[in-house]
Amino acid sequence: MDKLERWKSIASIASAIAIPFVLAVVGYFIQKQLADEGLKKDYVSIAAGILKENSAGQEPDLRKWAVEVLEKNSPIPFTPNAKRSLEQGIPLVVPGPALPQPLEACMQAPKERTVSKALKQLEASVKRGNTNNEPIETVLNHFMRFVDIVVAQEAEAGQTDASLRCLQSWATMVVEGDNEWRKSIGAPDSKSVYERLRKEKEAAAKGQKDDAPPQSEAHH
After folding, report:
1. Largest Cα–Cα distance in the chain?
2. 81-102 CB burial, b ≥16 within 10 A, e <16
3. pLDDT-derived band of residue 209, with 50, 70 and 90 as boundaries?
4. CA Rg, the chain, in Å?
5. pLDDT number for residue 103
6. Which of 2, 17, 19, 90 sits CB 3.0–4.6 Å from 85 for a disulfide?
7. Rounded Cα gap, residues 208 and 206, in angstroms
8. What pLDDT band is residue 38 in, cutting at 50, 70 and 90?
9. Where does the pLDDT of residue 24 fall: very low under 50, low under 70, confident under 90, or very high at 90 and above?
10. What 8-state DSSP symbol labels residue 144?
């Protein structure tokens, strides 16, 4: 019994010593793992910042190191093309919306309109006929030729009108498609972009005008 009690005492003492030791060891490894994770996060942040910069003024080895850091911490391996693009600093190109081509019927160029020219010629012919006392039949012939030109070109004007309406419908569809695409990627619509550029241009022009010296001072 004395031996049993002795071993119990030794076991209790050993457990009292071992538990803090085990906790200390486990705590050390946990802290080390957390420190390593934090360090990895810092390295990834540094690498991402390097790759965001313009590659023109960077050392190739620096970009290569940044790519290796990202690849090592990426759950999905980089493809050779992806690694090469990142190392060379090739920008990521986001394709725009797939826009439909206008119908061929919409693209028919309008024929030259000669009605205004024919009207001036008719006025000159009538005036000349009155001056020269030409027969009324001659004047009527001039008028009928003008009418023939108007009738022939009226059909062409209808075709031009149809082509214009077709292009207007196509342009509306393109604008709507562009707006939907820009909305899907979180970008402002084209109208607001061009409006902002217009205001910036006007402000810059106004600033240059305000900075210009008065004419009297310029001559001096």
Report:
1. 157
2. ebbeebbeeeeeeeeeeeeeeb
3. confident
4. 42
5. 79
6. 90
7. 5
8. low
9. low
10. H
Give residue 143's Cα distance to chain centre: 57
Q: How far apart are CA 212 and CA 202, in angstroms?
A: 15
Q: What is the pTM (predicted TM-score) of this model?
A: 0.41
Q: What ranges do the domains of the chain cover?
A: 20-88, 106-210
Q: Alpha-carbon distance 178 to 192, whole Å?
A: 13
Give me the amino acid identity at 102: P
Contacts of 201 (CB under 8 A, 6+ apart): none
The contacts of residue 182 (CB under 8 Å, 6+ apart) are 188, 189, 190
* pLDDT bracket for residue 127 (50, 70, 90): confident
What single-letter DSSP state applies at residue 212?
Answer: S
